[in-house]
Write a structure and sequence with these properties.
By secondary structure, the chain is of the alpha+beta class. It is 19% helix and 37% strand.
């Protein structure tokens, strides 16, 4: 089942990495515990990476009609989706 998720990492004074994205529940479950590497998305030498935890991702909605409408509008994902930035070792 597809769900709408919100991802957020607070990187202290460097900033916040966040995203709203639609994904299959099983894909998100598989990604938990994996290494995510965003590179220097918060500026030179920021090197944002870490292990994806369950607490980093929140389900916003599992309403399939709503999710289908969002997909039809093609406005998601926004921000930096952790599923698109898994380390090669974890894919």
């Amino acid at each position: 089942m597809k769900k709408l998720y919100k991802f957020e990492w607070d990187c202290g004074r460097m900033g916040v990495v966040d995203s709203l994205f639609i994904a299959l529940e099983e894909d998100v479950d598989k990604a938990i515990g994996a290494q995510v590497d965003f590179g220097e998305i918060l500026g030179k030498h920021s090197n944002v990476y870490g292990t994806l935890k369950q607490s980093d991702i929140v389900v916003v909605s599992d309403d399939q009609d709503f999710i289908e409408k969002l997909e039809a509008l093609r406005i998601l994902p926004t921000g930096h989706c952790p599923l698109h930035n898994l380390s090669e070792d974890d894919e």
